TrEMBL record:
Residues 13-173 form the Peptidase S26 domain. GO terms for biological process: signal peptide processing. PANTHER family: CHLOROPLAST PROCESSING PEPTIDASE, SIGNAL PEPTIDASE I. Keywords: Cell membrane, Hydrolase, Membrane, Protease, Transmembrane, Transmembrane helix. This is Signal peptidase I. The chain crosses the membrane at residues 12-39. It catalyses: Cleavage of hydrophobic, N-terminal signal or leader sequences from secreted and periplasmic proteins. The keyword Ribosomal protein does not apply. One of its GO terms (molecular function) is signal peptidase activity. Belongs to the peptidase S26 family.
Length: 183
């Protein structure tokens, strides 16, 4: 009888240890490696939509730097933002006649084709002319894909400290019918 109670106690203790270990492991993974994020607003449309749920790679920028085209999560003073990296340290950014120039070379932005058509139908450019802007050390320049409706490095967020970048968006996980990589 006593042996049976001890065996049940050991089994219960083993279950508790396993559950605590699993919870600690989930906390470590979520805090340091991957985390869910929900898109708020339309600034990245049509690439990302309001209420899309993403998985964010939080460790990538501890082994590399953000690159042009990466979709990143930025920690602001009161909220988080999701934006596309347009320029990195040392780059000179300029937009002229709706064409993005990085270091004087045109950059293809196929993810903007739908928005550019819509802007032209309204008789405007999707991206107003600006620059040239030289990106200083430790900073990046970001914009939303929905450039007519995006607060970004051009108009409110300014240049972003690399230390404020929490991670890179990897995949849309919800809604389930729209699961896809984010690039």
């Amino acid at each position: 009888m006593m042996e049976q109670k001890a065996k049940k106690g050991n089994e219960l203790f083993s279950w508790i240890k396993s559950i605590v270990f699993a919870l600690v492991l989930v906390y470590i993974i979520k805090t340091f490696f991957f985390a869910p994020y929900m898109v708020e607003g339309a600034s990245m449309s049509p690439t990302l939509h309001n209420h899309d749920k993403l998985y964010v790679n939080k460790i990538i920028y501890s082994v590399s730097e953000p690159k042009i085209g990466d979709i990143v999560i930025i920690k602001g003073t009161d909220k988080r933002y999701v934006k596309r990296v347009i320029g990195v340290e040392g780059d000179t950014i300029q937009v002229h006649s709706d064409k993005l120039l990085v270091n004087g070379k045109p950059i293809k932005e196929p993810y903007l084709s739908k928005n550019k058509k819509q802007a032209r139908s309204l008789g405007v450019y999707l991206t107003e002319d600006f620059g040239p802007i030289k990106i200083p050390k430790g900073k990046i320049f970001v914009m939303g894909d929905n450039r007519l409706n995006s607060m970004d490095s051009r108009n409110g967020l300014g240049l972003i400290n690399i230390s404020s970048v929490e991670g890179r968006s990897e995949v849309v996980i919800y809604p389930f019918k729209d699961i896809r990589q984010t690039k």
